[in-house]
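User: Please run a holo structure prediction.
Assistant: Happy to. Please share the sequence and the ligand.
User: Here you go; the ligand is glutamine.
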Amino acid sequence: MGYPRRVDERAHGGAHGYRLRLAHLYPDVMNIYGDRGNVLALQHRCGVRGIALEVVEVNVGDELDPAAFDLVLIGGGQDREQRRVADDLARHGAAIRAAVDGGLPLLAICGGFQLFGARYVDQSGGVVPGIGVFDLETRHPGRRADRCIGDVLLTTEVGEVVGFENHGGRTYLAPGQAPFGRVRHGFGNNGEDGTEGARRNNAIGTYLHGSLLPKNPAVADELIEAALRRRFGAGATLAPIDDEAEAAAHAVAARAAVARGRRGRA
Ligand code: GLN
């Protein structure tokens, strides 16, 4: 990261010296919402703790052994980009599902999140197949329907999460599929049932971007800690680090979401 920050010395306890590998799927195609910011946040939060994070970009046509990675990330993309990567992603579907069952931490954002469900039915009724990591389906209600756009505030297992949503598709979770969070302000998955995103083991899918992890450090640390434990055992823990800038960014986004709620827009 290119900006100076104060580093808490305690940060070097616990996990110092570990190495993790992150697979960033289709970074040149699925990258419309500053999704690279999520990679930078993970690199920063690993770096100040003395954890080496190697980032491997996986593009269309590349081989992928998800079990050999410690973290997987896929960003957002519009329908056109989703169609471009769907067939290639399908090649890796079974291996990614198995790795998630084995505890692989994963973050899928927006268009990437939709592709990790069973399918996305676009505004013309065309079906873009997903890889079924999450038990859900996304349907676009048609050209005339409003998009779900704006600041969002969620309650999740890792506390309050903030972000920005911009999607036309409405996502419906199958019974038994856990959401990532509950919507306090915003539309979330579909504007109806109060759910947002999906969670399976250490895999998180969400519509929130902008980027998500820099202003939600608890989510970033949840992923990193899960990665350490899967690879190095339950004793691998993360020490707290200075989160002043992150907390300030979180507070600004939270205020925007609350103001949106007051204006009565979802
Ligand atoms: N298919 C998408 C939609 O529902 C794309 C979401 C996105 O990443 N903007 O609008």
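DSSP finds five helices and 14 strands in the chain.
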